[in-house]
Fold this sequence. Notes:
Helix content is 62%, strand content 6%. The chain has helices at 41-56, 58-66, 73-87, 95-109, 112-124, 129-143, 145-164; strands at 2-4, 10-13, 38-40.
Amino acid sequence: MRSMTDEGESLFVVVHPHQPAQSGQLLPGEKRSKENTMTTDKDRIANGERNRRKVLGDAHVDLSLKNRTEFNAEWVDFITRVAWGDVWQRPGLDYRSRSIVVLSVATALGRWEEFRIHVKGAIHNGLTKDEIKEVLMQCAVYAGVPAANHAFAEAARVFEEMEKG
Length: 165
């Protein structure tokens, strides 16, 4: 639910109390929002940027912010605020589980650039190469062999790049 401050700033009101799936899901120094606490859009963007950096790394986020333009600035804020600030910090799934979901969906939809970014994120979130392999094996059954075959090739390229540094 949204409301406005006296200064006209948009507020986001959390109305869903949940328990985290695992302790340690929050970033260091962060506190879980309580029911009916208000968070400004600026706070949501800041939280989103912290989540995004944790998953994708500083270099990726810095490059993305460098490529921010007048045209795409609202889009970048939206993705950071909603996807990374709201969805990625929701309780109920830890970062590892979220990475599994993203890899699965990106494989099923053939979103290979996003897939490659999130292979690195999955490693940062504690998935092993063997676990990523199992995710792709599962995807082969439900999303199709061609999608999983391509995902294996993309993941192998990412692993090579990561090993080279």
